[in-house]
Amino acid sequence: MNTSTAAGYWKRSGSSLTFRFSLIVGIALVTFSLISAYASSVFERRSLRAGLEAQSTRLAQAFGASVANALFTFNSEVIKAAAQGFGNDPSIRFLEVKDSSGKVIAASGDAQKTEGLVLASHSVKMGSEVVGTVTLGVSTDSIDQSWSWCCSSPSWRTWFAGR
Q1: Helix 17-72 vs helix 3-14: angle between axes, to the nearest 10 degrees?
Q2: What does the DSSP 8-state code read for residue 106?
Q3: Which whole number is the average pLDDT over 74-94?
């Protein structure tokens, strides 16, 4: 096909109402598809994070229940052993047990590095008396790994993480 034939085809089809309509509809469909994909990805990420927050809260409650008696009787060895055992889970990046006065009895991980963690705190009670608090930091790596298929570029991951 030479240039004069191609230009003539483009000129004829460019003036065609059918061609213009098809082009506009095609662009609209592609745009709608991209917007839909973005919206569904944002909602999926929010849903995954909400599930991780709920799981973190349940873990903090379970750990608090396991150290409640030891906090009540000031048995720091049992608390430290429970914290060490619970802290062996690779998804738990931070763990802290405080008594009712706020003194840290057992800790694992770095309290200053909370980026990429979902934090959950739970007041530990013995009866109606608060005997301490438990704080857990659960990693968001599971969410990040599920998104690795979509956003392998660090700039995309940073952009999506802010949403």
Answers
A1: 80
A2: E
A3: 88
Total number of domains constituting the chain: 1
What does the pLDDT look like over 37-57, one tens digit per residue?
A: 999 888 988 898 999 999 999
- CA dist 132 and 78 (Å) reads 14
Q: Quick check: helix, strand or coil at residue 14?
A: helix
Q: What domain range includes position 12?
A: 1-163
Alpha helices in 73-103 (DSSP H): 76-87
Distance between CA 23 and CA 28 in Å, rounded? 9
> Distance between CA 38 and CA 40 in Å, rounded?
6
Gyration radius of the chain over CA positions: 28
Residue 47 belongs to what H/E stretch? helix 17-72
The enclosing domain of 6 has a CATH number of 3.30.450.20
Scanning the structure block, which residue is given the tokens 């061609």? 19
Q: Which two tokens stand for residue 38?
A: 């973005």
At 17 the pLDDT is 84
| Assigned token pair, 35 | 């917007």
Q: What are the pLDDT digits (tens) for 122-145?
A: 999 988 899 999 999 998 887 777
